[in-house]
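Q: Could you fold this chain for me?
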Amino acid sequence: MNRIAWIFVLALVVGLVPAMADTWSFSYTSLSGDPIVVSGSGFFTTGTPYGNGYLPILSITGVTNSAGNITGLHGLAVDPPGANNDGTFQWDNAFKPSGDPLTNNGLLFNVDGAGMSPINIFGDGGDYEYSYGQGLSGYYVEQVTFTATNVPDGGTTLSLLGLALAGLAGLRRKMSL
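A: Sure. Below is the predicted structure, expressed as structure tokens.
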């Protein structure tokens, strides 16, 4: 096989592997049977992994059904099992792509809803809790589900497509000579 054909095959193989970025789509919603339905969804970005499989969450955007827009993280990420604590909430803003995505310190983010900020989603073992405003010492706590999926990186995907097209063009040119 000539070099151009090998480049084409390599581009096809690499193109079949999904290009993953550090952007994640997330959602949470009340478990059925809870008296008030809370839900939200959006995107967060993660940084360089910690040694224990967790990734620091660096930014977050989205919307909630009752508290308005998600306006950003309440505090910095901390390598679990460490945690930030402001006297009301405890959080680490760390995410694990496999297994249980959030720790018992959880994700703490701000919203623009009056009296609703910040919102804390925390838990372990697949059971998650949602609280807002004054945390566990005040306001509201409800069980929720939490899911997150990786969002493919458009730039990498387009560059792989370009490489594959260049390989096809080279192979076509070589065959027509």
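A (continued): The radius of gyration is 22 Å.
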